């Protein structure tokens, strides 16, 4: 599968269309704020979700969806006992499906146990939901959503920056960080044929050094996104290159203002 892109381009560099003069200040705030949190993990089940390219399905990282399916009943009972919700701690595997975009999200204790006991690879080990979102398909809906109290307390300048972005409404905002030498597994968030309209979002990088790339499955080639603020078609396969230092970005989902979208279309 070749890249679909946006408006005839692999991605849209938003650096010249957004005021990014505050990014260095936001980086200082975020680094301090992260010291006050115990972030969650995300992204440990891309292969079992069926969203990785065929050519990379044999990569040697452990997927927790595959681990849960192969787990003994005794091990699953231990896993379930680590759930945050008391009603889930004695759940049977037939009654509840655990994981991202599933009935029961993984608790931090479950993630750590899967990592320590079975070697599950969670690419993004620093995951902070500033505007929580339960289901992927609801990320552009803003009804009943707002920044968490913790986000407004620890990241006030970042919240103010996000609120000034050119959205009619915002339905999701999260920070995703990769530890040194970790990589973001190549995956896609939708199927182009099933989602002809590209979801609206802005990703911005308060610090430089994150190397997101788009993966052309047909050419087996990477296109690196060299920008500190960008929009890409998340139905294209994408991943993050490993690096010997911590990297992160913030993604904001919603619906763009009509004038902003029109300007991007005509650029």
Describe the structure.
The chain is of the alpha+beta class and 267 residues long. It folds into two domains: 11-41 and 123-266, B-lactam Antibiotic, Isopenicillin N Synthase, Chain (Jelly Rolls); 62-118, no CATH class. It contains seven helices and eleven strands. It has helices at residues 23-34, 64-70, 73-81, 108-118, 149-154, 156-163, 258-266, and strands spanning 11-13, 40-42, 124-131, 167-178, 184-187, 200-204, 212-216, 221-224, 229-232, 237-240, 247-256. The strands form two sheets. It has a seven-stranded antiparallel sheet. Strands 5-10-7-8 form a four-stranded antiparallel sheet, with no helix packed on it. Strand 7 (212-216) and strand 8 (221-224) form a beta hairpin. The chain is globular and about 60 Å long.
List keywords for this structure.
2 domains, 267 residues, seven-stranded antiparallel beta sheet, alpha+beta, 7 helices
CATH fold group of the largest domain: Jelly Rolls
User: In angstroms, what separates the terminal alpha carbons?
Assistant: 26 Å
The CATH superfamily name of the largest domain is B-lactam Antibiotic, Isopenicillin N Synthase, Chain
Helix content: 10-25%
Q: Structural class of the helix and strand makeup?
A: alpha+beta
Q: Say how many strands there are.
A: 11
Overall geometry: globular
Strand order of the largest sheet: 1-9-6-11-4-3-2
Major beta-sheet overview: 7 strands, antiparallel
Helix tally equals 7
Rg, rounded, reads 19 Å
CATH architecture of the largest domain: Sandwich
């Amino acid at each position: 599968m070749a890249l679909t892109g946006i408006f005839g381009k692999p991605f849209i560099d938003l650096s010249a269309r957004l005021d990014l003069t505050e990014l260095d200040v936001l980086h200082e705030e975020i680094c301090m704020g992260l010291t006050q949190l115990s972030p969650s993990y995300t992204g440990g089940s891309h292969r079992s979700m069926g969203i990785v390219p065929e050519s990379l399905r044999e990569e040697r990282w452990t997927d927790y969806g595959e681990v849960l399916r192969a787990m003994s009943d005794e091990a699953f009972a231990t896993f379930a006992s680590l759930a945050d919700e008391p009603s889930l701690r004695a759940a049977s595997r037939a009654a509840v499906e655990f994981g991202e975009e599933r009935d029961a999200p993984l608790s931090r204790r479950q993630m750590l146990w899967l990592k320590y006991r079975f070697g599950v690879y969670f690419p993004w080990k620093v995951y902070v939901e500033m505007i929580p979102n339960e289901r992927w398909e609801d990320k552009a809906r803003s009804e009943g959503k707002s920044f968490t109290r913790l986000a407004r307390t620890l990241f006030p300048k970042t919240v103010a920056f996000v609120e000034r972005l050119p959205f009619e409404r915002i339905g999701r905002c999260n920070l995703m960080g990769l530890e040194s030498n970790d990589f973001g597994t190549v995956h896609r968030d939708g199927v182009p044929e099933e989602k002809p309209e590209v979801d609206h979002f802005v990703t911005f990088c308060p610090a430089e050094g994150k190397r997101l790339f788009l993966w052309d499955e047909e050419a087996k080639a990477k296109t690196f996104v060299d920008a500190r603020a960008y929009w890409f078609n998340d139905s294209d396969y994408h991943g993050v290159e490993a690096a010997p230092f911590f990297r992160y970005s913030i993604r904001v989902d919603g619906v763009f203002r009509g004038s902003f979208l029109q300007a991007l279309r005509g650029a």
